[in-house]
Every structure is written in structure tokens, then in C-alpha cells.
């Protein structure tokens, strides 16, 4: 192993200890969350055990940080996100985040429609939070049929039948935060 790789691996333990302490976790709590034994975590943090991908992946998931952050990998390449639109069901989704797992952010564009579409509610696991940027959104949620103007916000459990469309035939632009089941967006008023 070259010296640079050894230096990077030697720095992992103190970084893991600092991250655990910053999150207010004990070794026992971290062991329960990651499935990695308490003794292995202790040896990792003290530098008595070398980090492996098998050990770092559950820690990265638990801490909700990229693996590169755990090992202190140097930043490489262009940091900008190059957005690649996804077209589904006649709508355009532009990913605004690229972190695996956790809450995902999208800009969604519903094109103008010459004739109103018939709602076809769907369900899936998760939570959705949306903010209407432009246009008038029609949100069918269970037995409710709502119209949301620009600036309006909605949050709902996606296990409820739901459908999004244009309320007046015009285009609609909105921001969507989608989280796995149980992850909700929390808005706190400014003080």
C-alpha cells in the first residue's frame, strides 16, 4: 500500500469518532443501527482496524453522508449537477438531488393539455411534499379534488391514491420532495 493510501486510511478512525460524537451516538447505539459490532466500531475509531467497504457502507447510510466524506476522499471533477430530465407519463421530472436514499428533490413540469385528462390515481410507498411554482395544479387525493395555485404547498402519504394534473389545461411547474415511507418534510416558521 502506498503512503498516500495509508495516510487516508489512518484518518478514517478519527473522522468516524468525530462524526459519531457530533451525532450524539454511543458505540452501542451505532452498533444497533448499523449491524456492525461495538468492538469492531471501537477498533475502527481507534485505528486498530482498517476500514473496509463492508464496514463503511452501513456507516455512510446511518450517518446519511457520501462514502467519500467518511474516507476524506479529495473532491474530483466538476461539482455541478448536470440535470438529465426524465420523461414519464407525459410529464418531465428534473432531478435536483442525486444522493442515494433519503429525500429526493425534483422539478416537475406538466405540459399544457388541449382537453382535460381523466384522473388515474396511483399509490406507492413514501411521502410527497410539493410546491406549485407556476400554473394551477389539480391534485386528486383519495376522495378530495383540490386546485392549488402558485405558492400553495401540499404534503401527503403516497399510499393514498393520488393524481397530479393541470386544473385549467395550462402548463404547471412544481417542486417535489419525495421521501421513503416515514420520511416527511418539516417546515419550521422563521422566528
Which key terms come to mind for this protein?
191 residues; alpha+beta; six-stranded antiparallel beta sheet; three-stranded antiparallel beta sheet
Report on the architecture of this protein.
The structure is a single chain. This protein is an alpha+beta fold. The chain is built from five helices and nine strands. It has a six-stranded antiparallel β-sheet, with no helix packed on it. Helix 1 packs across helix 3 and helix 2 packs across helix 3. It is elongated and about 65 Å long.
Could you provide a short overview of the structure?
With 191 residues, the chain is an alpha+beta fold. The chain has 5 helices and 9 strands, in the order αααααβββββββββ.
What does the secondary structure layout of this molecule look like, with pairings?
Elements: H1 3-22, H2 27-34, H3 38-46, H4 53-63, H5 67-71, E1 86-88, E2 91-95, E3 104-110, E4 127-134, E5 137-141, E6 144-148, E7 153-157, E8 162-166, E9 172-179
Antiparallel strand pairs: 1-2, 2-3, 3-9, 4-7, 4-9, 5-6, 5-8
Structural class: alpha+beta
Give average pLDDT, whole number. 84
Helix-strand string:
HHHHHEEEEEEEEE
**Spatial strand sequence of the major β-sheet:** 1-2-3-9-4-7
> How widely separated are the two ends?
53 Å
| E-strand count | 9
Biggest β-sheet, characterized? 6 strands, antiparallel
Strand coverage percent: 25-35%
With helices defined by DSSP (H or I, 4 residues minimum), what is the helix count? 5
**Unreliable stretches:** none
Oligomer class: single chain
**Considering DSSP H and I runs of 4 or more, what fraction of the residues is helical?**
25-40%
Q: If you compute it from the alpha carbons, what radius of gyration comes out, rounded to the nearest whole angstrom?
A: 22 Å
Shape type: elongated
Amino acid at each position: 500500500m502506498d503512503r498516500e493510501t495509508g495516510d487516508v486510511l489512518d484518518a478514517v478512525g478519527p473522522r468516524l469518532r468525530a462524526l459519531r460524537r457530533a451525532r450524539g451516538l454511543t458505540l452501542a447505539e451505532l452498533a444497533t443501527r448499523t449491524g456492525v459490532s461495538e468492538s469492531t466500531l471501537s477498533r475502527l475509531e481507534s485505528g486498530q482496524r482498517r476500514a473496509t467497504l463492508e464496514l463503511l457502507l452501513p456507516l455512510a447510510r446511518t450517518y446519511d453522508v457520501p462514502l467519500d466524506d467518511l474516507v476524506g476522499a479529495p473532491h474530483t471533477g466538476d461539482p455541478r449537477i448536470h440535470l438529465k430530465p426524465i420523461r414519464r407519463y407525459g410529464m418531465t421530472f428534473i432531478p435536483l438531488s442525486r444522493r442515494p436514499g433519503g429525500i429526493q428533490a425534483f422539478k416537475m413540469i406538466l405540459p399544457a393539455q388541449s382537453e382535460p385528462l381523466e384522473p388515474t390515481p396511483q399509490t406507492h410507498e413514501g411521502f410527497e411534499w410539493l410546491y406549485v411554482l407556476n400554473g394551477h395544479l389539480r391534485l386528486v387525493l383519495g376522495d378530495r379534488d383540490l386546485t392549488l395555485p402558485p405558492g400553495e404547498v401540499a404534503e401527503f402519504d403516497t399510499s393514498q391514491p393520488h393524481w397530479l394534473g393541470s386544473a385549467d389545461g395550462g402548463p404547471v411547474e412544481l417542486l417535489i420532495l419525495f421521501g421513503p415511507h416515514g420520511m416527511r418534510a418539516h417546515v419550521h416558521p422563521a422566528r
